[in-house]
Amino acid sequence: MVKWCVVYSSATGNTRRLAEAAAQTLGADLMNVNDILGFLPGSPDADSDLSDMEDSYENLAVIEANRKSLLISAEANLSEVAAKLSKYDCVMVGYWLRRGGPDQRTAVLLSKMSGKRVALFQTHGAYEGSEHAVTAFARAGSLLGSDNTILGTFSCQCAVNPALIKRRLEGKVPGHKGEDLEACKKRWADAEKHPDENDLERMRTFAKKMLVISEKA
């Protein structure tokens, strides 16, 4: 029987709710990313308000440039991460998007994983199927360590952190100068309705699909 675990990073609780639904469906162990990595210096507690971290990294290129220092400063090294994941055949990783890619802690975790069958799911304020949401999966996949196989992906538009919306409206978030704020307000209003029960059921369906695929792989 294939053994699963679900590892998530959640800023406002949205990703956690989906992770809980997935873990229950898979019969999987559920862990916060900090259970695997330990706490990165200067990072907040699990599920806390991470809006202030939006200005920390301009884009994924900068995340990549800082990865070495993050890996060194994290409490867990590569062998420790491998040991914590060693009893699992498959790992579902859930994360929230920041600047078009996985959040900082998930980026570190993905780079440390190897030899696993992986399912990815992400939460974001963008519409599902948008370029932003689709390309984020490619970026997440590029961060993965060696010899991993991606079994599937799941995407869910979710409510945006109110603190981040406030800063966007004040023009305090780099990279969003001159954006169409009226279109953003509509998108944020639509996102505010999620995740709903339909989203949770979609996640359960996705988890069942991943379970079937993993048993056949």
Verbal overview:
The protein has helices spanning 14-26, 33-37, 60-73, 78-85, 104-112, 131-143, 162-169, 181-191, 197-216, and strands spanning 4-8, 29-32, 90-98, 101-102, 117-124, 149-157. Mean pLDDT is 84; it is low at 41-75. Strands 1, 2, 3, 4, 5 and 6 form a 6-stranded mixed sheet that branches. The chain is globular. The protein is an alpha/beta fold and 217 residues long. The protein has a single domain, classed as Flavodoxin domain (Rossmann fold), CATH 3.40.50.
- The domain tally reads 1
- The CATH topology annotation reads as Rossmann fold
Query: What is the CA–CA distance across the termini?
Result: 12 Å
- Proportion of residues in β-strands: 15-25%
Number of beta strands: 6
Estimate the mean pLDDT confidence. Answer: 84
Q: Using the alpha-carbon principal axes, give the shape.
A: globular
Largest sheet: 6 strands, mixed
Helix content: 40-55%
Strand-and-helix sequence, N→C? EHEHHHEEHEHEHHH
Supply the CATH class.
Alpha Beta
- Give the full name of the CATH homologous superfamily: Flavodoxin domain
Give the count of helical stretches: 9
Which regions have little confidence, pLDDT < 50, spanning 5+ residues? 41-75
Structural class of the helix and strand makeup? alpha/beta
